[in-house]
Design goal:
Endonuclease III, domain 1; globular; mainly alpha; 2 domains; about 270 residues; single chain
Amino acid sequence: MPETPSIASPARKPTKKQRAIVTLETIKRLYPNAECSLNFDGPLQLMIATILAAQCTDERVNKVTPALFYRYPDALAFAEADLLELETYVKSTGFYHNKAKNIRAACQRILEVFGGEVPRTMEDLTSLPGVARKTANVVSSNGYGLNLGFTVDTHVTRLANRLGFTKHQDAVKIERDLMKLFPQDEWEATSIHLIYHGREVCDARKPLCEICELTLLCPSAGTVDRKKELDRKSSTAQIAARNAATKARAKTKTKAKAVRSKVTKPI
């Protein structure tokens, strides 16, 4: 009976799915306490915190939400909120005009259409203003324990590409690829663990490949710095070429000016 190939077997290159499973096992071991970084009490607060987290750190959102949720304790309070006042509470999270408008409109729809309760299905969640698939996935999984999809943020986008799990930059396409590789009951856990690894080790500009425990699984290991060096050299060459062209044009203008001066010089 043939031996079952392992991830480390030199006889056969591991499949993408095999690499994905070992990746998940590794990052779960590295970050055993990884969980959603946002502070919330119930699906409504989680939805609002996730809307605020767009283009903003979870740490900043967690500083804003205590006062926000004290002032607006439920969907009715948010739905009836004065927009200018609501904006002052969320201003430091950035893009506060749209965020405040979407939060109020989402809560109004929750009251009018869903009886005051944050919906549970992907279709209903994404019908709320300001709620796209990323927010819907966070709410459904962390608020209701339902893995409807795979949460894709900037960290997940970066790691999924570096690990060779996708070739896309579009979040929906990345999500589709990742959902095929990981078990459904692990979708949100995988996303959260990838986010932790992105923050701790696989940095956007300078990944710490020398200490990364995913190095043997990662086709991009050690390539980012080399690419940056190539980009730097290319940029230096381009600058040098532009400078040379500028000097050449200046020299040409000087010669042309001298010729014109001779031609027009009075006899």
